[in-house]
Amino acid sequence: MGDAHDSSRGRDDKAKGGGWKREEAGEGVARGQPRDASRATHKDGDTDSPVPANMAVPRERRACGAEVTQPEVRPRLRGLGARCRGWRTVSGAMPRAAGLGRAAALGPLLAAHVVAAIEPISVGIALGAASALTGYLSYTDLYCRFAECCREEQRLNASALKLELEEKLFGQHLATEVILKALTGFKNNKNPKKPLTLSLHGWAGTGKNFVSQIVAENLHSKGLKSNFVHLFVSTLHFPHEQHIKLYQDQLQGWIRGNVSACASSVFIFDEMDKLHPGVIDAIKPFLDYYEQVDGVSYRKAIFMFLSNAGGDLITKTALDFWRAGRKREDIQLKDLEPVLSVGVFNNKHSGLWRSGLIDRNLIDYFIPFLPLEYRHVKMCVRAEMRARGSAVDEDIVTRVAEEMTFFPKGEKIYSDKGCKTVQSRLDFH
Ligand SMILES: Nc1ncnc2c1ncn2[C@@H]1O[C@H](COP(=O)(O)OP(=O)(O)OP(=O)(O)O)[C@@H](O)[C@H]1O
């Protein structure tokens, strides 16, 4: 392609903050990293590790007041606090329990609220009493109204996901189709043979993070804020090449712990193209067809890799179609998936360079995100205006879209930042 684009383009924007994902990154993105982002200490006493302090702490060990057995790491303060404080939300959530009789019967719950601060066994008894009195809410139902529960068997609302993708994700017919198919098939299968592994590829600002947010919300209602959804960002969590072994160990411990606590955990790895070769291979055993690994089954977990690697290959194919006068929507998965898997495997800067994950066919789908055109940018501007509660002003829509830069030089078809800077540009109008 005439315009060789740097796959790192757009990363600066990401680091600067703003938007759901950047906000998350600011918090310490691996779910529950303490806000103070304290660093883990290595065995040799080196405190320079950028790995989130909580990463090596399996969740099941982090019950209230539980002792963290690994002295070199600090517990996940936010998660721990949330769990310990869980019952304080009971009175706030009470209006949800309809009916006076029911409210009266839930009296013990209010008592539980008070008792929670004292000791957890009493809370359990109070909850049991409340559920027995109400008669039609099980202990679990009641508990899960007030605390986030891992509902492994919960079915996916495929039509809601379909609607959301079709309404909100612009210009990505392949991603919409494959993600729907993959998730519906996986979640409908009561006995999957391996975890679902999706690898999302494409230019900056084409919607990879946006989609992973939608997927996360459809799997766990709190989405990226859920205790069962975990986001890793390579440059934030695995920056140093000399710590690969440490990252591998911590990643294994982190995933093992979280899947033990919730089998349907979701793990999102952003900036795969910035991940040092070999790091991701540490999780290969978890992605394989094993029934269990050390007593833990990973088969219901979902792994998503997000990467700019392969963006040039996708663009080339899209351009070929365009130049041949063919419709964008005519591009099929088979036109891109094989090219992507080979391209990524041979690309030293893909995070999956010569990776056993590809070698062993452990990635279920390579999902291409097509470069966005002028009309898609306009759609993003309109969506953003609506999200801000403003009326759509077509003059502003055009002005914002025309401020974006397009490539290749001659044809100027594709936005080089996708829809990424739309939000900030709109602020000036
Ligand atoms: N295809 C799209 N449809 C609708 N909105 C989009 C699309 N692509 C991007 N956006 C908008 O632009 C924002 C930035 O996109 P997003 O972070 O998903 O890009 P990305 O592909 O993950 O980029 P990067 O590779 O740089 O991380 C999104 O939050 C969303 O508002």
UniProtKB/TrEMBL annotation:
Belongs to the ClpA/ClpB family. Torsin subfamily. The keyword Nucleus applies. It catalyses: ATP + H2O = ADP + phosphate + H(+). This is Torsin family 1 member B. One of its GO terms (biological process) is endoplasmic reticulum organization. It is found in: Endomembrane system; Endoplasmic reticulum lumen; Nucleus. It holds the Pfam family Torsin. Keywords: Endoplasmic reticulum, Glycoprotein, Hydrolase, Membrane, Nucleus. GO terms for molecular function: ATP binding; ATP hydrolysis activity; identical protein binding; kinesin binding. Residues 1-54 are annotated as: Disordered. InterPro entries: P-loop_NTPase, TOR1A_C, Torsin. One of its GO terms (cellular component) is nuclear envelope. Residues 372-428 form the Torsin-1A C-terminal domain. Residues 1-25, 33-46 have a biased composition (Basic and acidic residues).
